[in-house]
Amino acid sequence: MSSLPYSSWPLILLLALWCMVARESNGASNNVKVGSISKVEDAENFHIYYGQTFKVIKNAIDGKSYLLIQNTSRMAVRTKYCTSRIKSYVIPLLNYSLDTQSSQGGVPVSFFELLGLLGSLKGITSDAVASPCLLKLCEAGEVVKIDKGEQQGQVLSQFAAHFISDTDQPQTCNFANFFPLSEGTPLQRAEWIKFLGAFTNLETKANQVYDAVKASYTCLSQMAANKTKSFKPIVAWMGYDQNGYMWSFTKDSHKLKFVEDAGGENIDKSINKVSYNVSDPDDLEALHAILCTVDAVIDETLSSDPQNYTQTTFLGNINVDDNSCFAFLANQSIWRYDKRVRNGTTLGKKVLKHCLFYVDLR
Ligand SMILES: *[C@@H]1O[C@H](CO)[C@@H](O)[C@H](O)[C@H]1NC(C)=O
Ligand SMILES: *[C@@H]1O[C@H](CO)[C@@H](O)[C@H](O)[C@H]1NC(C)=O
Ligand SMILES: *[C@@H]1O[C@H](CO)[C@@H](O)[C@H](O)[C@H]1NC(C)=O
Ligand SMILES: *[C@@H]1O[C@H](CO)[C@@H](O)[C@H](O)[C@H]1NC(C)=O
Ligand SMILES: *[C@@H]1O[C@H](CO)[C@@H](O)[C@H](O)[C@H]1NC(C)=O
Ligand SMILES: *[C@@H]1O[C@H](CO)[C@@H](O)[C@H](O)[C@H]1NC(C)=O
Ligand SMILES: *[C@@H]1O[C@H](CO)[C@@H](O)[C@H](O)[C@H]1NC(C)=O
Q1: Taking the domain 13-211, which CATH number applies?
Q2: 332 CA distance to ligand 5 centroid (A)?
Q3: Looking at the whole model, is its pTM more than 0.85?
Q4: Which of 190, 201, 207, 260 has a 20 to 30 A CA-CA distance from 316?
């Protein structure tokens, strides 16, 4: 049995798929023991179901079922699905490639690092990545950069899987939509490590990582919740767009949730205007007034020279002469987006006060 046309399958597709696979695998003598399984508790955009010699990931990102067939199953050599509803992959993946270049930031590499999977990574689409380990592999030629162009699709189709986060591109059969950033809360994003664990039979490890992240997140947010202060610190999470002279307060749900879970209060609650043009005097005055009411600022302005982005740069960007009313300056509570940048240095050395923490696994 090879590729069959299933375009007319009814909605009970998954059930039908299970039946077929069950029939297929009854004959397989060499059943793989899946020692551990993952259960998706928090994430909303994928689910995993387990059979004897296969797994099914229901992926809400592309609406497809990914049939992951164990390499020891007879089905592995005989079956290949690539329809509008099902894709199949032979697991554990022998090799894979990553789309590290996309409008949405590319596939987050840290998930793969945490599972120890960089050894079978063979290709990336951009080397603008933070991971020092991945950069080393690139230098050594272990991982190749596959540039956009006519050949790209053909080269990428040779890998057992190509993970992408930008769903707007043409996809071949081996493409897998791995999109943690589609989720609305930090923990939901982190749980996508289980998605990768399923592709590599590393469920045990993936569960450990997620359980540790969740335990730590939950503990910190409980500590923050237990603080019985009469006022919560007001936090402005904002960024500046140099081209349009615009400052905007974040609307991203996972960032707002971070602030709340960390025991802060979002400025968003009280202010309905989101963007301020600093070259408009009225906007500037309004922005200035708002900033005088906040206790902490998280500045995630993109910078071409992140190491050089200091408090002075921030003040230059908000374009005010008199900053004496800014409590967050007196308290040293201006924080930069705390994640790895290309050279492997962190932007904000400051440990976030008030239990603010960041679990974005990028
Ligand atoms: C299946 O994958 C495992 C792990 O990569 C490998 O050791 C084994 O040789 C593979 N078996 C087959 C039949 O391909
Ligand atoms: C990747 O693995 C596939 C089997 O899944 C194999 O056919 C292919 O040659 C491998 N490609 C590289 C670059 O190792
Ligand atoms: C928070 O308070 C609850 C109830 O008072 C207590 O059981 C829990 O241990 C506290 N958690 C932390 C992390 O302090
Ligand atoms: C902000 O104002 C300046 C000057 O009026 C203008 O050039 C710029 O386009 C405005 N930015 C946006 C995003 O509208
Ligand atoms: C800022 O510092 C002042 C004076 O040290 C203090 O009273 C206030 O509570 C601090 N605010 C925050 C949010 O830490
Ligand atoms: C970084 O800042 C220093 C001091 O302001 C300046 O001399 C230097 O040119 C800046 N570096 C870059 C690459 O802009
Ligand atoms: C960052 O890396 C680039 C090239 O790898 C190097 O030229 C540059 O000096 C580094 N910058 C810093 C601040 O280390």
Answers
A1: 3.40.50.1980
A2: 10
A3: no
A4: 260
